[in-house]
């Protein structure tokens, strides 16, 4: 049963036309929206689904200002530069929950063209109509410009720090997300983008560089792009399938999570790139003591198993090589510290046990993780793993305590036999990480 407000109910119901011959024993029609006013308070109903539609249209705009420290001034002093974000949102367009959301951000308003990023999203749910529940599809179109520090062109642990390299992407993305069940979704679409590789002075960078023992820079590093000019254009199809059956038991996820993603190059763009990039991720959370769910009850003991494989066939620019190391890869290492490769495999195991201190529930846990480039680092043009003297594989072990979503953990890097303490938020391979040394 699907509840709508009066504006979205069938015309016959809005006009109070006789429809009694189409109602079943419960006073309902399967697969049809039913207004609340048609329900009999004296009867008991079996509800399969409840939906709420807000007919109000909303629009909003916001601006935020901040200041950033720039340590790259000519005198070596830190300069305070104003930055900010302007955002807007127009939601529930046409009363059908469509939305247009955008934001523009710059960390230097005095020279915004040097560091400006933007993103505009248009979301169109119910592609097949509000009344058609046979397919649940949502269309999304995005224009974007983003800049991130590359984990591919960084120095290994036994080298001096290499000059940072930034990957600037701007382009267009359009995709459709289809829900097969409540746990299974599929997204497929097209991505067209231009990639520009920049150095720390915001100039185009064609090759990676490293610091030589003499203190000078070696500029003969791996090429940063397919074209060799520092700028690439490409178009590719992108699809992913996600099945997530996890559920929370006293604040801890239990169940399985499966994610498969594939990018297929179309031969359009710089040097007509044709490639197939693919990633498969599997995570399983096992309830070891079958802890029942309930308010005030402790979380269950959980064994978490995680595995990931990623690979690429065909043209592979260095900026798209798979980086090994970091909180999303192998904990205890910095982003990309282990290498950048064409194929990688990662595995992790974590055991957590609940503890109670003064009626406050927490978890203590221990974990082990490993990542390996399968010898494929040499198959990346210029071999950035060898150029920056990185290992290509690594293992770590650690333990910690979790209170709510916050994790405080100590990790031992087996490659260098050194430890580090950091704070993380979330579960295994969570998206937020704070390194404290």
Automatic annotation (TrEMBL):
Protein transport among the record's keywords?
Answer: yes
- InterPro entries in the cross-refs: Bac_surfAg_D15, D15-like
Domain called Bacterial surface antigen (D15): residue spans: 92-419
List the GO terms this entry assigns under cellular component, sorted alphabetically: chloroplast outer membrane
The answer, when asked if Transcription is one of the entry's keywords, is: no
Q: Where in the cell is it found?
A: Plastid, Chloroplast outer membrane
Protein topology in the membrane: Multi-pass membrane protein
Q: Which Pfam families match?
A: Omp85 (PF01103)
The UniProt keywords, alphabetically, are:
Chloroplast, Membrane, Plastid, Plastid outer membrane, Protein transport, Transmembrane, Transmembrane beta strand, Transport
- The main location class comes to plastid
GO biological process terms, semicolon-separated? chloroplast organization; protein import into chloroplast stroma; protein targeting to chloroplast
Coiled-coil annotation reads none
Identify its protein family.
Belongs to the TOC75 family.
Q: What is this protein called?
A: Bacterial surface antigen (D15) domain-containing protein
Gene name, please?
gb16258
């Amino acid at each position: 049963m699907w509840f709508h407000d009066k504006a979205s109910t069938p015309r016959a119901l809005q006009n109070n036309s006789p429809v009694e011959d189409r109602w079943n024993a419960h006073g309902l029609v399967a697969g049809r929206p039913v207004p609340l006013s048609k329900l009999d308070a004296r009867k008991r109903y079996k509800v399969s689904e409840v939906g709420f539609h807000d007919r109000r249209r909303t629009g909003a705009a916001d601006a935020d200002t901040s200041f950033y420290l720039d340590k790259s001034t000519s005198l070596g002093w830190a300069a305070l530069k104003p930055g900010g974000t302007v955002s807007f949102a127009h939601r529930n367009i046409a009363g059908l929950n469509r939305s247009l959301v955008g934001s523009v951000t710059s960390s230097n308003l005095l020279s915004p063209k040097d560091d400006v990023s933007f993103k505009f999203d248009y979301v169109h749910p119910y592609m097949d109509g509000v009344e058609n529940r046979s397919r649940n599809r949502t269309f999304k179109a995005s224009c974007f410009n983003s800049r991130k520090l590359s984990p591919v062109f960084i120095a290994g642990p036994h080298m001096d720090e290499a000059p940072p390299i930034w990957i600037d992407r701007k382009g267009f993305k359009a995709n459709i997300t289809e829900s097969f069940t409540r746990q299974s979704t599929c997204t497929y679409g097209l991505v067209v983008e231009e990639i520009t590789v920049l150095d720390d002075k915001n100039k185009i960078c064609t090759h990676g560089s490293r610091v030589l023992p003499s203190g000078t820079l070696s500029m003969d590093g791996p090429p940063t792009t397919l074209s060799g000019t520092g700028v690439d254009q490409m178009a590719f199809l992108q699809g992913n399938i996600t099945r997530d059956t996890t559920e929370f038991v006293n604040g801890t996820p239990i169940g399985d999570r499966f994610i498969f993603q594939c990018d297929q190059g179309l031969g359009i763009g710089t040097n007509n790139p044709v490639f197939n990039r693919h990633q498969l991720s599997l995570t399983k959370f096992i309830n070891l003591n079958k802890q029942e769910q309930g308010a005030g009850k402790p979380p269950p003991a959980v064994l978490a198993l995680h595995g990931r494989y990623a690979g690429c066939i065909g043209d592979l620019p260095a900026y798209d090589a798979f980086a090994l190391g970091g909180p999303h890869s192998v904990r205890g290492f910095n982003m990309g510290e282990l290498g950048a490769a064409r194929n990688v495999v990662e595995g992790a195991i974590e055991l957590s046990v609940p503890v109670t201190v003064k009626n406050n529930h927490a978890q203590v846990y221990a974990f082990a993780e490993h990542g390996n480039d399968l010898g494929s680092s040499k198959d990346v043009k210029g071999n950035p793993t060898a150029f920056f003297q990185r290992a290509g594989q690594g293992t770590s072990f650690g333990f910690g305590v979790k209170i709510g979503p916050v994790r405080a953990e100590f990790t031992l890097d087996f490659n260098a036999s050194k430890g580090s303490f950091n704070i993380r938020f979330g579960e295994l391979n969570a998206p937020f990480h704070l390194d404290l040394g």
